Amino acid sequence: MKWENITVRNNDYIKVKSIKVIIPLYKNTQFQITDDFEFISSDPELIHVALNSNAIVSSLDFNDWAQYLKKLLLRKNLPIIVKCVFEHWDCFNVSFDIADFKICSNSEIKKYVYIQQEKQFEFSKGNLNYAIEKYTSLSERKGIFGIK
To answer: Could you say which of 56, 77, 125, 145 is the most buried, measured as most Cβ atoms within 10 Å of its Cβ?
Structure first.
């Protein structure tokens, strides 16, 4: 298995090459900190998280996910200015958008459809942890979230 980077956008199957990550800051009226930070990333793990965040979060406590997301982002190649204010990140509201992509080949589409059908099967069987199980199997941090 590998990190997922294919999705559907505007009725086309696309392979995501990079994403825009938007990290809002908690509004601190005392210091007038109100900026959000945006950067482009081609990191395969971040792309996977962006494409699967709803499914991953649905099987976790949201506070646990926000703390893990902060730790994940700190491990990545972010601009240093963004890391300097990590204590002000509002990880409950981090968002992702597709920055660059290409249209998938027919073989990529077939593989993607097969993978999505496997996920649908798992979901229909009642396995609501399928997304986080796949993520943890790919992650360098095995055993996170108590899932093996």
So the answer is: 56
